[in-house]
Design brief:
Elements lengths: L8 E5 L4 H12 L3 E6 L19 E5 L5 H7 L5 E4 L6 H6 L1 H22 L4 E7 L22 H20 L2 E7 L1 E3 L12 H10 L3 E5 L5 E2 L1 E3 H12 L8 E4 L5 E2 H12 L3 E5 L3 H6 L9 H7 L7 H15 L7
Parallel strand pairs: 1-2, 1-4, 2-3, 4-5, 5-6, 6-11, 7-10, 8-13
Antiparallel strand pairs: 9-12
Helix pairs in contact: 1-7, 2-4, 4-5, 6-8, 6-11, 8-11
The structure holds nicotinamide-adenine-dinucleotide.
Nicotinamide-adenine-dinucleotide binds next to helix 1, strand 2, helix 4, strand 5 and strand 7.
């Protein structure tokens, strides 16, 4: 892995956000030449502080993935394109579905068209969501599980995923799709609670505030630490045989919201767990229990998660204790 990305020319869409910036930092460490494109969509994770450790070693382009001229230019000469730009707010996808559709579907198509015309030899790694499965009919969820998304965000992700696979199959553009579980860690937005529940619990604990657990708190989720996701993205990108397919990324373990809140409260030594009824908006997009079956990705790439939940939470708490001021304000 160490040398695979040395001198590789890499584009990250959504590169100033949570996943994009953590990936960029790792790629710079590995010797890659990294370009980030981001439109700083309001209320999402784009934050210049995210790339503070590498700010003089990356190119930043403030543009929108829906801008054909920008994308035609930016995809040129790139060996890998990690496609992480998206409308990621589940709640907002129900309030503003056309915006979600436009960014997640049209934006992905603009990118794919740009690749096909300007750089057909590039490789596209798409970050989809476990939300594409919807309500689980069995656990753990493998890639053969039915897809019945419960919200617009998950529908547009599923559609974008299928477009990446069509371009792979029909147009010969290498593409691979990940269905990513709830991921947490340093550099996630901490301004509001509309996405990124674990990070929100951490904020509430650090503020010594109420940590709100919806309903009875028994719903199970699979939480993955960001460094493990970054490694999964890199290993997938570097595995030629992985392209043309979809893979789950998760920890493979389930934890209830109630247990999660208690772990965070204990590790932070602050905060106060309290149960609260679901809001109607939340209820509508809540798919219930989820645990990823990660055997397919492990077999294809050799990747396995390495950071236990308590360690990941402790590392996240440390990060925001130091740098919270860059993340707290809206
Ligand atoms: N974080 C998770 O738990 C998780 C889970 C599953 C899937 N994903 C997917 O991973 C990707 C990255 O998510 P994240 O957690 O880093 O979110 P994020 O909000 O931190 O980052 C997304 C970035 O994309 C940018 N962006 C949005 N629309 C854009 C556009 N039209 N043009 C250019 N940039 C645009 C935003 O400004 C932001 O910086 C998303 O596609 C998301 O759906 C994330």
């Amino acid at each position: 892995m160490k040398h695979t990305f040395e001198k590789a020319n890499v584009l990250i869409t959504g590169g100033l956000g949570f996943i994009g910036s953590n990936l960029a930092i790792r790629l710079v460490e590995l010797g890659a030449q990294v370009t980030l494109v981001d439109n700083m969509l309001p209320r999402q994770g784009g934050n210049l502080f995210n790339i503070d450790p590498i700010k003089d070693r990356v190119h930043i382009n403030f543009s929108d993935i829906r801008n054909e001229l920008s994308m035609n230019y930016l995809v040129r000469e790139k060996d890998y394109i990690f496609h992480l730009a998206g409308q990621v707010n589940h709640v907002d996808s129900m309030r503003n579905p056309l915006k979600d559709l436009d960014i997640n579907c049209r934006g992905t198509l603009v990118l794919l068209e740009a690749c096909q015309h300007m750089n057909p030899d590039t490789r596209v790694i798409f970050a989809g969501t476990r939300g594409e499965y919807g309500k689980s009919v069995r656990l753990p969820v493998d890639e053969e599980h039915p897809t019945n998304p419960v919200g617009v965000y998950a529908v547009t992700n599923l559609t974008a995923e299928k477009m990446v696979l069509v371009y792979h199959r029909v147009k010969g553009l290498d593409g691979v799709c990940l269905r990513i579980t709830n991921t947490y860690g340093p550099r996630h937005q901490m301004m509001h609670d509309e996405y990124g529940v674990l990070n929100w619990f951490i904020r509430k604990a650090l503020d010594n505030d109420t940590i709100p657990v919806f309903g009875d708190g028994k719903i199970l989720r699979d939480f993955l630490f960001i460094d493990d996701l970054v490694e999964a993205l890199l290993k997938t990108a570097a595995t030629p045989g992985a392209y043309g397919d979809i893979y789950n990324v998760g920890s493979g373990k389930g934890v209830s919201f109630q247990e999660l809140a208690a772990i965070i409260e204990a590790l932070a030594g602050r905060g106060n767990v309290r149960h609260t009824p679901f809001t109607q908006e939340r209820k509508e997009v809540e798919p219930g229990d989820y645990i990823a079956n990660i055997a397919k990705l492990s077999k294809a790439t050799g990747w396995t998660p390495t950071v236990p939940l308590s360690e990941g939470i402790a590392r996240t708490l440390d990060f925001y204790r130091k740098y919270g001021a860059h993340y707290w304000k809206l």
